[in-house]
Amino acid sequence: MRITVIGGGPGGMAAALEAASSGAQVTLIEKDRLGGTCLNRGCIPAKTLLRSAKVASDTRNAEELGLDCPPARVDVDRLRARKESVVDELVGQAEAQLRRAGVRIVSGEGRLIDANSVEVASANGALERVEGDAVILATGSKPFELPGVDQSLPRVWTSDDALNLAEIPKDIVVIGAGAVGLEFACAYAAFGSKVIVVEMMDQILPGIDRRASRVVLEGLERAGVTFRLRESVSLVEHHEGRVRVTLAGGSELLTDVVLNAAGRVPDIAAAGVGQLGLEMRGRALKVDEYFRTSVEGVWAIGDLIGGMMLAHVAEEEGVLAARNVVDTLKGIEPSSRLEPDFIPACVYTFPEAASVGVTRESARASGIDVVQAISKLTANGKALAEGEPYGFVAIVAEKGSGKIVGAQIAGAHAVEIVHEIAVAMRNGLPVQSLAATVHAHPTISEALKVAAIDCSSKI
Ligand code: FAD
Description:
Elements: E1 2-6, H1 10-21, E2 25-30, H2 36-41, H3 43-60, H4 76-100, E3 104-107, E4 109-114, E5 117-121, E6 127-131, E7 134-137, E8 141-143, E9 156-157, H5 159-164, E10 171-175, H6 179-190, E11 194-199, H7 210-222, E12 226-229, E13 233-239, E14 242-247, E15 252-255, E16 257-260, E17 264-266, E18 280-281, E19 284-285, E20 298-300, H8 311-329, E21 345-347, E22 352-357, H9 360-365, E23 370-376, H10 381-385, E24 392-398, E25 404-411, H11 414-426, H12 431-436, H13 446-458
Parallel strand pairs: 1-2, 1-7, 2-3, 7-20, 9-16, 10-11, 10-16, 11-12
Antiparallel strand pairs: 4-5, 5-6, 8-17, 13-14, 14-15, 18-19, 21-22, 22-25, 23-24, 24-25
Helix pairs in contact: 1-8, 3-4, 3-6
This protein binds flavin-adenine dinucleotide.
Flavin-adenine dinucleotide is lined by residues 6-12, 29-32, 36-38, 41-43, 46, 109-110, 138-141, 159, 180, 270-271, 302-304, 309-312, 314.
């Protein structure tokens, strides 16, 4: 079995490792650095920045913690060096893991010829043809180009520029209040920038539970971020040495830097995917539940196929697709499918937000009879001790059976504690099981137990 993977992001690397562990000969083609958007330009550098931002923000609130210390000043060069060393470390580890697993890594730009061959152009102009029995496409996504925003203008940033840390601008307008836009708003506000976030919807983090969205909004407002909700950007241009942002309603914002964080779209132009007549679903490459594209022998995963465009989703899809490819090549029907109901989604602002499964409202809208219980962090010992009594834990369970169907969490450590619920849900546990489990004291996780006890009483 010879399997070719195009794209060495979290999706492609996971697919390559899984296929290699099943005995396939795997070639992984990557045109840039291994690790993809996630390691090089996304999750990891952003969280590295946020860690420094949290310390900076804590020094601003030091007095409340009984400390006498001046607010931290940012050393951009050291900040950048730390970010790069974290990224380099993880990219090195990823490469070593792939090599240990026997994956052949080819550096260059892959172009799909057909299910059995990929042409690779290396940086020095050499061409190589990689032959195989199947191809997994994992070429990821690119920033969404907003009409009216000329991304080639200096000081009109994408997330890549925000992570390059050339400067900490005096002021910055962030377009889009999704997870990426808010994480940068949070970090740059902590570093001292005056931040305005423009969002066309009537809430930040559109799509997440409204109460969780409000907790994050209030936290960012406490940090000095200003929001312009229900407003959209119609034009971004240079004006007298600054950047002028014109909103659809006609008002204008003058700023040093604009960050376009209006989202990402599948990169279907990559690898010649767009030219092969593969079927599309909207802007994404169409696949069936087993990750098969419309061309036999060509499979696709990750941001390229749209859906939840998250690193852990890409990774899981990579593993599942690789299993399906191996099964198919052995003449076995593919059977590995994503279980989207149990996948957490996290936002790493201060305070954090995390969710898994459904909200009470969405459950009821789809006809499921549910109950909900909420535990506020104002009553949680650890949250108070940490000086972060903001937020709540909400658990949603099926009436009668008590089966947990969702949770929404906002507050400190939300992105860590959400997994307790994901494990419970994936194993079909009733909320009473959570209520009966001893949770260490004092922990933020105790709020889950409190909510679970309350929820059990409503079942
Ligand atoms: P990618 O990671 O984009 O990898 C695709 C790879 O394919 C790239 O390395 C690219 O160079 C390569 N490639 C493309 N075309 C070719 C070709 N023709 N030949 C060879 N190689 C090619 N997700 C989370 O889950 N949590 C987070 O906290 C989070 N934070 C984020 C923060 C930011 C600022 C951004 C931008 C994204 C963030 N994401 C986060 C999203 C996450 O990075 C993506 O969902 C994830 O990287 C998608 O993985 P992938 O493997 O599908 O694609």
